[in-house]
């Protein structure tokens, strides 16, 4: 024999009950089911029987990387603020106010860029990723597993910057003949030209504007760097290599040809 009660609020009164050992099952959406046995004496318990129903929660974890030129990953990003908003059914002042903001690892080690959001209820949550000099990103993540973390890697687009190269004056015939080409190189030998060649000109200065960064920070391993090749009629070809450009931070270099 079973007795079902729909609890709209607490406490809930069940009865009359025979003085026997009863099994209590308590369940609610978004919570773990609770089951226990209780001996009911003649005349009842005489006091409320309290039950704590744990919320059914999991977690979301992943690594945040910076991505440029559509598909090129230049490294993990630390100190990204991750704001978790629970499923719509759980958006109560008490729950949201309890706090669900974390930051990605910024230690420069193997976990750099990793984040974990804990105590995530079942359903579709929203995550917002933001950091200065990066485009803010919002995504939805569906959590259904409480035993294993839900994986969710993220790619953020960093703010572009610029590289300015100044060339020392010499007796060269015409700096209008001097061209500068920017290349993005990988540490494993790959390379690609970024934009077209720029003319140095009479002011002996060239600026590569609106250029994606090549590195997220100096405390993680470098995967990409910039290289500038200067060439032209009447000039010896020269290469300026190993240039690191960071998000939103201009770079200036000087050379002689």
Quick description:
This protein is mostly beta strands and 257 residues long. It contains 1 helix and 19 strands. It is rod-shaped, with a radius of gyration of 31 Å.
Specify the biggest β-sheet: 5 strands, mixed
What average pLDDT do the residues reach?
87
Determine Rg (CA atoms, Å): 31 Å
- Number-wise, the strands total 19
| Helix share, percent | under 10%
- Runs in which pLDDT lies below 50 for 5 or more consecutive residues are none
Percent of residues in β-strands: 35-45%
Q: What coarse outline follows from CA principal-axis ratios? A: rod-shaped
Helix/strand class = mainly beta
Q: End-to-end span in angstroms?
A: 95 Å
Order of helices and strands: EEEEEHEEEEEEEEEEEEEE
Number of helices: 1
What does this structure look like?
With 257 residues, the chain is mainly beta. Helices cover 2% and strands 43% of the residues. The protein has one helix at 93-97, and strands at 21-26, 34-39, 57-68, 72-76, 81-85, 101-103, 114-121, 123-130, 137-143, 150-151, 154-156, 161-167, 179-186, 191-193, 198-199, 205-211, 224-231, 238-243, 251-255. Strands 3, 4, 7, 10 and 11 form a 5-stranded mixed sheet that branches. Strands 13, 14, 15, 17 and 18 form a 5-stranded antiparallel sheet that branches. A hairpin with a 3-residue loop joins strand 3 and strand 4. The N and C termini lie far apart (95 Å). The mean pLDDT is 87.
Quickly list its features.
five-stranded mixed sheet, 257 residues, mainly beta, rod-shaped
Ordered list of secondary-structure elements with their pairings:
Blueprint: E1 21-26, E2 34-39, E3 57-68, E4 72-76, E5 81-85, H1 93-97, E6 101-103, E7 114-121, E8 123-130, E9 137-143, E10 150-151, E11 154-156, E12 161-167, E13 179-186, E14 191-193, E15 198-199, E16 205-211, E17 224-231, E18 238-243, E19 251-255
Parallel strand pairs: 3-10, 3-11, 12-19
Antiparallel strand pairs: 1-2, 3-4, 3-7, 5-6, 5-8, 8-9, 12-16, 13-14, 13-15, 13-17, 17-18
């Amino acid at each position: 024999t079973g007795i079902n009660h729909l609890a709209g609020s607490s406490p809930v009164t069940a009865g009359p009950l025979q003085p026997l050992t009863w099994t209590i099952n308590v369940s609610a959406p978004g919570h773990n089911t609770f089951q226990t046995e209780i001996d009911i004496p003649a005349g009842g318990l005489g006091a409320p029987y309290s039950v704590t129903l744990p919320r059914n929660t999991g977690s979301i974890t992943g690594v945040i990387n910076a991505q440029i030129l559509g598909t090129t990953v230049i490294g993990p990003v630390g100190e990204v603020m991750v704001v978790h908003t629970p499923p719509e059914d759980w958006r109560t002042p008490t729950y949201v106010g309890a706090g669900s903001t974390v930051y990605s690892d910024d230690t420069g080690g193997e976990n750099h860029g990793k984040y974990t959001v804990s105590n995530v209820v079942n359903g579709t949550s929203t995550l917002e990723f933001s950091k200065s000099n990066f485009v803010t990103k919002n995504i939805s993540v569906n959590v259904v597993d409480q035993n294993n973390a839900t994986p969710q890697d993220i790619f953020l687009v960093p703010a572009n910057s610029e590289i300015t190269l100044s060339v020392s004056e010499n007796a060269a015939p015409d700096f209008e003949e001097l061209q500068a080409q920017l290349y993005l190189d990988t540490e494993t030998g790959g390379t690609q030209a970024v934009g077209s060649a720029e003319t140095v000109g009479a002011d002996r200065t060239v600026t590569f504007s609106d250029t994606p960064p090549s590195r997220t920070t100096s405390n993680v391993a470098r995967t990409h760097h910039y290289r500038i090749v200067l060439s032209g009629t009447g000039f010896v070809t020269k290469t300026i290599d190993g240039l690191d450009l960071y998000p939103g931070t201009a770079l200036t270099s000087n050379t002689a040809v």
